[in-house]
Amino acid sequence: MLSFDEAQAIFAAAAEPVRETETVWLGLLTGRVLSQDLSAVTDTPAADRSAMDGYAVRCEDCRGDACLPVQQVVYAGTRPQALRPGHAIRIYTGGVVPQGADAVIAQEDAVENYRGVTCSRAPVVGQHIRRQGEDVRRGDLLLPAGTLIEAGHIAALASQGLVQVPVCRLVEVAILTSGDEVAAHDEPRDVYQVHDVNGPMLESLVQSMGAVVRCHRHVRDDERALHNALRELAGDADLVLVTGGASVGQRDLVAVALASAGGELLCRGVNMRPGKPVTVGRLRGKPVVCLPGNPAAAYTTFALLVTPLLRRLQGRSRLFPPVSRVRAALSGARVPPCDAFWRVGEVGYPGGQESLVQVTAQQGAAAVSALGQASGFVRVGPQNASQLQHVSLPYYDLHRWLS
């Protein structure tokens, strides 16, 4: 059975990025992935600009108690005149520094009266001036392909006057829930059945990753029905997510149905808890992931194994978010003989560089009541068995792994 790290690498490499691209308006770019490198088309700022409200001057004119007549008032958006020797120009933040000026005096360092302005502090060349191109030079790489666009990136694009931006098309996901025990939402539920928890949960998780759910279907525990559904969905979507039927029981039929449909298994079973039965394969060139039927196990394996695969499909440059370290009190906990991912709630920073987290009470693979309270997972293994009091553990922050 593969280790978690081996399986994570296989999942991430199970597909190639989508090739199709589209052009999207700047205001709708958040969460989209840039499809090509973008270079600056102009200097930013495009001209020397004042960083303060004050006066544009020549430093050589500001000796002693010299009083400089105010030649002009320049606001942001006003075209300045060339500064005449022995004069000052009143200028406001963002205004273009006039030709001939080599400094801006802050208004609090100047005294103005009817005759002009006097500097109370001698200026130095270049002070309070934002130089042309000091942020970005024309031709510089602005954003590389694979960037997941956020508000800060949009600011950089807008500063260049870029309105239509090329991005990768949205990744489409098909969700297939299986199991005789799962009652569809339009069916009456009997005591031997359970509500469909995984379907709505996975739809939300897919959307949080910036992908779209193309369809959501449910089939009974029937190999032929699974066979047909897998073939159809693999033709319609970029990724197929299946829940249930991933283990090795008599009614765990997904692997058999995948093989009969002409697919291949890349990984079956991972030495982790929860989520040991998780499987990934490929059908008609599309990745097919079978998640465990227990909701908490499906949630865990989606976050840690499916999200890198989704990021690769989306064309993102970063597949794996950073893993930090935290301290957790595990006294009395039973450490499993494999990599366990325990849900934790962050409780603060009592001192030092690592935060202290509290392991949630409900860690069962089927427990969902406290699932939304988890801030992340700590990774616990047999090597931690002898040191259970405030041990330092790898921490997978869900805010990073599910976005």
UniProtKB/TrEMBL annotation:
Pathway: Cofactor biosynthesis; molybdopterin biosynthesis. Keywords: Magnesium, Metal-binding, Molybdenum, Molybdenum cofactor biosynthesis, Transferase. Residues 174-312 form the MoaB/Mog domain. It comes from the Bacteria. It is an enzyme of class 2 (transferase). Its cofactor is Mg(2+). Its EC number is 2.10.1.1. SMART domains: MoCF_biosynth. It catalyses: adenylyl-molybdopterin + molybdate = Mo-molybdopterin + AMP + H(+). Signal peptide: none annotated. One of its GO terms (molecular function) is molybdopterin molybdotransferase activity. SUPFAM superfamilies: MoeA N-terminal region -like (SSF63882), Molybdenum cofactor biosynthesis proteins (SSF53218). Catalyzes the insertion of molybdate into adenylated molybdopterin with the concomitant release of AMP. NCBIfam families: molyb_syn. Belongs to the MoeA family. This is Molybdopterin molybdenumtransferase. It comes from Cupriavidus laharis.
